[in-house]
Amino acid sequence: MTYDCIVLGVGGAGSAALYHLARRGANVVGIDRFAPGHDRGSSHGRTRMIRLAYFEHPDYVPLLRRARELWLELEKEKGAPLYRETGVVQIGARDGMVVSGVLEAARRHGLDVEEIERGGLPGLAWPESMTAVFERQAGLLSVEECVRAHAALAQAHGAELRIGEAVVGWSADGDGVEVQTESARLRAQRLVVTPGAWAADLLGDLGVPFRVLRKAQFWFATEVEQHTVDGGLPCFYFELDDGHFYGFPKIDELGLKLAQHSGGTEVDDPFTADRGIDAQEQARVVAFLAAHLPGASTTPTHHEVCFYTMTPDEHFIVDRHPRHPQVALAAGLSGHGFKFASVLGEVLCDLTLDGATRHPIGFLCLSRFD
Ligand SMILES: Cc1cc2nc3c(=O)[nH]c(=O)nc-3n(C[C@H](O)[C@H](O)[C@H](O)COP(=O)(O)OP(=O)(O)OC[C@H]3O[C@@H](n4cnc5c(N)ncnc54)[C@H](O)[C@@H]3O)c2cc1C
């Protein structure tokens, strides 16, 4: 059988692409080694932050606006909560990359961001030398539920799913593609590649030196009412002298979730990477917790290992393949891509069915590495 399109990797970005393609009536199949919402790649750990005043680069803001809109639409179509508007506070030196970047993105794009005085968030402490900027229209996404929602609704719109099947390679010929899995050879007119931490295996011919970093997320019990969403704690992100740390308010029995965004150990193979606790990583997160969230237990209730796939400039690659225009890809989401997954799905669908997209993705093109 020949499909209109094959989506290779049904994780954060791939499940969204599958959904948009199926919704537009394409005869599409998604292939993944693991079931949607699995914990082997980069889209697990209960929560992901979404914020619009983007310090990483103001050009992301139009994509973020559409991403937020699409998450809300998905939530409505699924009829289950996926997004929680907790607000996000970002804290650091006034002239540091985070606070100045947030203010610049907000200024350029007319976003609502306010400064918060020290003591203004009772559950969270920060030094007098730092500035805190708060964005109300921001919050958290239930990461696994989002992936499952995209995949399930894609199926409801007619997509086929092949789960538990590894892709061993793909090739393009004429204006079609062929995908070889462990057990089948599939043909389609178009291909979407959304490989997460396996970008080097499936997109090695691009010549981009993807680096995979192992990252741990830790949860800590707390009885402090001000550590809950109802008690007023938003999601938080700190730029400190010893790195970038972030976290989420208590939303369930596991308590606060914290992690270090900077740093990370490079791994050769996500399959064989150690998933145990790294004592030094835990010690850094516990030191952050003790300094900024007084009253919480410093013994983790739970931890999970997850992977960042970094590009050399830490911005995503969203483009068509330079030698095979029938192949669209989203790779190297560099540790900040989940919030965009909804709009990346729409972009990949546009590139696949229309050959172009109205969304401003020029700054994410592959040719910037030429
Ligand atoms: C600890 C942590 C915290 C993060 N926090 C945030 C945050 O707060 N906000 C935010 O926006 N982003 C955050 N990110 C980043 C974000 O989660 C990732 O950028 C995003 O989820 C990556 O999505 P993906 O589709 O590229 O990869 P994945 O979701 O991992 O999907 C790739 C899929 O491809 C499949 N696959 C690959 N190769 C094959 C093959 N050969 N055969 C079959 N299947 C294959 C995999 O099984 C997988 O399902 C965080 C990441 C981590 C690790």
Describe what this molecule looks like in 3D.
It is globular, with a radius of gyration of 20 Å. The strands form three sheets. Strands 5, 6, 7, 13, 14, 15, 16, 17 and 18 form a nine-stranded mixed beta sheet that branches. The chain is an alpha+beta fold. The chain has helices at 12-23, 61-78, 97-109, 143-156, 199-202, 279-292, 341-353, and strands at residues 2-8, 28-32, 47-50, 83-84, 88-92, 113-116, 131-135, 139-142, 160-163, 167-173, 176-181, 185-193, 211-220, 235-240, 243-248, 256-260, 265-267, 300-310, 317-320, 327-331. The chain is built from seven helices and 20 strands. The chain folds into two domains: 2-44 and 144-209 and 313-369, FAD/NAD(P)-binding domain; 88-136 and 211-309, D-Amino Acid Oxidase, subunit A, domain 2 (D-Amino Acid Oxidase, Chain A, domain 2, 2-Layer Sandwich). The model has no long low-confidence stretch (mean pLDDT 97). The chain binds flavin-adenine dinucleotide. Flavin-adenine dinucleotide is lined by residues 9-14, 31-34, 41-43, 45, 48-49, 166-167, 194-198, 201-202, 215, 217, 259, 306-308, 333, 335-339. The site of flavin-adenine dinucleotide has 37 residues, from helix 1, strand 2, strand 3, helix 5 and strand 13.
In short:
This protein is α+β, with helices and mostly antiparallel strands and 370 residues long. The chain has helices at 12-23, 61-78, 97-109, 143-156, 199-202, 279-292, 341-353; strands at 2-8, 28-32, 47-50, 83-84, 88-92, 113-116, 131-135, 139-142, 160-163, 167-173, 176-181, 185-193, 211-220, 235-240, 243-248, 256-260, 265-267, 300-310, 317-320, 327-331.
